Amino acid sequence: MKSLLRLALATGLLLGTGAVFAAENTPVGTWKTIDDVTGKPKSIVQITNDNGELKATVLQVLQSDEGPHPTCKACDGERKDKPVEGMNIMWGVHQDGDVWDGGKILDPKTGKVYKVKLQTEDNGNKLTVRGYIGFSLLGRSQVWERQQ
Q1: Are 71 and 83 in contact (CB under 8 A)?
Q2: Distance (Å, rounded) from C-alpha 100 to C-alpha 84?
């Protein structure tokens, strides 16, 4: 009886560890965006899961040519001249195996919207964010760092 209890406990611990690992390997969470040109932190972004669709919201702008509270001057539509902080910059992303894609991402500096592909790395501590037009080969990537 004791060995059966130990086996059940060990199985539960292993399954729990797997769940934690899987949770850390998701883009859901808070990220520091790193500029792919300068290598400097640009903003803090929170990615959330809304019924299987990932969305990203800018929580804080760390560096901007416009100063501490930039607006999206180059954006169109409802985002035009709105504060970047609090703005939804990614939407429509769904999991496809070990990547997340099918959605769009906005570059608030240029106002351009790109297709996006996400992939976690380094046990979920880094996120490769690839924005592209047409094919994934025609684009650029940033590596974001998970915040605790």
Answers
A1: yes
A2: 24
